[in-house]
Design a protein that fits this description.
Blueprint: E1 3-9, H1 13-26, E2 32-39, H2 45-52, E3 57-61, H3 67-76, E4 82-86, E5 90-93, H4 96-106, E6 110-118, E7 129-130, H5 135-139, H6 143-148, E8 168-170, E9 172-173, E10 177-181, H7 182-187, H8 200-210, E11 214-225, H9 234-255, H10 258-285, H11 293-310
Parallel strand pairs: 1-2, 1-4, 2-3, 6-11
Antiparallel strand pairs: 4-10, 5-11, 7-9, 8-11
């Protein structure tokens, strides 16, 4: 078996169906298997797979064990010489898997290989690749700055805007679509289960770098990543925001030092306080223009949740 395609499902049955359809229609001349694990959502994806795609190997987990642990569980029953970790809310544009699979075989010392992710509206998803996190790029993680200076090395996403199809060495490849050799994944200890969700892809890419390998971005391999539909509003959005902060804090504490992690926590607290102040000021100035109210409310909820996390008032996150 050349390739195992591992997909973790969580309340994404409709996306999963389209994802598998695109794999089967666009991927040729590779002996591959698809392994799907449902991480405790029980959304009916098992029945859908039995009816529509009986060739897919399926695991039903009793509880949601998080992205990293679920991927590891599915990997353990896979058999391919290479493994592709793919999100269920993705769709291939052309032979993307063939392209990254071929690149993995040809590129020197390849660790993790990924392609170009597009949003649902076909715009470039700037999280396709990124620089390894540090205090500076986390403090400056502002959408407006990234839009103004997309080629700044601090973000690590400059290859997305090059007018070339040449493979480029990068720091981090998005966990939504990453392929690597089975032997390498096992050698570096698989996904770290210190993370429930977020930062596990960053951690994995760092481990390949430390093992003397290179991570590559392949611009000619294009994948639509719908992403974020289940965590974009309300309580789900706050859960997502807090989990992202917690996972980054754990990453810094584990890979740099405990003090570095605490410096990050303090910095996020200061940034959150400043952003809350700015949101309240601009919201107050634009009250007559009510169409901006939902945007300001969402921003306020996001940064208030961040501030509460830095003060230790979101202790539920420790249980993940």
């Amino acid at each position: 078996m050349n390739l195992s395609i591992v997909i973790v499902n969580w309340n994404s049955k409709e996306f999963l169906c389209k994802c598998i359809a695109s794999i089967l229609s666009q991927t040729t001349n590779i002996a591959f298997e698809i392994v799907v694990i449902d991480s405790g959502s029980f959304d009916g994806c098992g029945s859908m797979l039995r009816d529509c795609y009986p060739q897919v190997r399926f695991l039903q987990n009793k509880e949601n064990v998080g992205f990293a642990r679920a991927n590891n569980l599915a990997f353990n029953i896979s058999t391919g010489d290479c493994v592709l970790f793919l999100n269920p809310d993705t769709e291939l544009v052309g032979p993307a898997i063939n392209i990254i699979f071929a690149a993995l075989q040809k590129l020197p010392n390849a660790g993790v290989v990924g392609g170009k992710l597009l949003n649902s509206d076909r715009t470039i998803q700037t999280t396709s690749i990124k620089a390894f996190p540090n205090l500076l790029n986390q403090i400056l993680d502002v959408g407006m700055l990234q839009r103004l200076f997309p080629r700044a090395r601090v973000w690590g996403m400059w290859p997305l805007f090059n007018k070339t199809e040449t493979p480029t060495e990068v720091d981090v490849v998005s966990g939504a679509c990453m392929i690597m050799r089975r032997s390498v994944f096992e050698q570096i200890g698989k996904f770290s289960t210190h993370y429930f969700i977020y930062s596990e892809d960053v951690d994995l890419c760092l481990k390949t770098k430390l093992a003397g390998l290179k991570n590559y971005y392949i611009p000619s391999a294009v994948i639509i990543h719908h992403g974020g539909a289940s965590t974009s509003v309300g309580a789900a959005a706050n859960f997502s925001n807090i989990m992202a902060l917690e996972s980054r804090w754990r990453f810094f504490s584990l890979t740099k030092s405990r003090p570095y992690g605490w410096f990050y926590r303090i910095a996020i607290g200061l940034v959150s306080a400043v952003r809350i102040t700015l949101v309240l000021v601009f919201w107050g100035l634009s009250l007559p223009r009510s169409r901006f109210a939902p945007r300001y409310r969402a921003a306020l909820e996001k940064w208030w949740a961040g501030l509460r996390w830095t003060l230790g008032l979101e202790n539920w996150v420790k249980s993940y």
